[in-house]
Amino acid sequence: MSAPNSTTPQLSIDDLSPYHYVPSELVCVIFVSLFAIATLAHTWAAIKYRLWWLIPTVTLAGFGEIVGWAGRLWSSVNVLSANAFLTHSIDLAFALADSRIFLTCDIVALVVQGAGGGIAASANTQAGSNLGGNIMLGGIIFQLIALICFVSLATEFFIRFIKDRPVRGQSSLSNDSFTTITNSRPWDHRLKLMSGAMVFITVVIFIRSIYRTAELADGWNGTIISTQIYFDLFDGAMIVLAMYTLLFFHPGRFLFSEPALEEMIKLESNTGSSTRQSLIKSL
């Protein structure tokens, strides 16, 4: 029997792993648990306050995080499983979404990211992985640009709201659709807390978007994507902070006063959603 060739390189499990490391099982369990708790709580709150738009946005995003981190947990047990990495790559591309225009932008960006993640995770060649990575990068950059536009417009809105300087001017707001602007709600303590929470959520999502952009721009073999702590902190932890901040400063409790909220729920159950819209205008 001949002696083994000492010059033949021996590949470690980290070299074979698509992550370039083995995901920590404990960290994955913690994140799956945190997202599961937050998702259930958001679903309950959406039902309680009749804020149904939170289900296809926040609740769905939370479910995507659960599945993505479950795939990562699967990888911690079997790091060479292609299906586990595919689950991780596609589902963790999804994050929180907001508003009609920006929700549409998010959907487009997330579909592109999901498609890129699927191509990269199932690729058998470096060229295929690079193609999927570039598609994901394009979706993330598009999402980051949309987020920057959202932040700019939101900043202008808050400045005009605080200074009571609407875009159309007070004299031109005779239509009923502008009732909430002409009779604006006072900048009370509850509204300040809610607004501060929204600012914080936007910041952490912005941090996460910058991280994902830098991660993919650095390449599949780059230092950023190969460092586990970066992903845990700048991806997982950022979305955890966003979901729990929105839960603690829930719009059902902070955006509406308690009497108005109770009346809104009661009237909606009796007469339908059209009454709710009229009541919201009067707040």
Provide structural commentary.
By secondary structure, the chain is an all-alpha fold. The chain folds into two domains: 15-167 and 180-248; 250-283. Helices cover 72% and strands 0% of the residues. The protein has twelve helices and no strands. The protein has helices at residues 13-16, 25-48, 55-77, 82-91, 100-122, 126-163, 179-182, 189-217, 228-248, 251-254, 258-271, 273-282. Helix 8 runs antiparallel to helix 9 (228-248). The longest helix has 38 residues, at 126-163. The protein is globular and about 70 Å long. The N and C termini lie far apart (86 Å). Mean pLDDT is 80; it is low at 171-182 and 279-283.
Keywords:
72% helix; 0% strand; disordered C terminus; globular; mainly alpha; 283 residues; 12 helices; 2 domains
What layout of secondary structure does this protein have?
Layout: H1 13-16, H2 25-48, H3 55-77, H4 82-91, H5 100-122, H6 126-163, H7 179-182, H8 189-217, H9 228-248, H10 251-254, H11 258-271, H12 273-282
Helix pairs in contact: 2-3, 2-9, 3-4, 4-5, 5-6, 6-8, 8-9, 11-12
Could you tell me how far the N terminus lies from the C terminus, measured between alpha carbons in angstroms? 86 Å
Which segments are poorly predicted (pLDDT under 50) over 5 or more consecutive residues? 171-182, 279-283
Overall average pLDDT:
80
Oligomeric assembly: single chain
* Fraction of residues in β-strands: under 5%
| Structural shape | globular
What is the number of helices? 12
Give the radius of gyration. Answer: 23 Å
* Helix proportion: over 70%
- From N to C, what is the helix and strand string? HHHHHHHHHHHH
**Which structural class do you get from the secondary structure elements?**
mainly alpha
Organism: Hermanssonia centrifuga
Protein name: RTA1-like protein
Keywords: Membrane, Transmembrane, Transmembrane helix
Main location: membrane
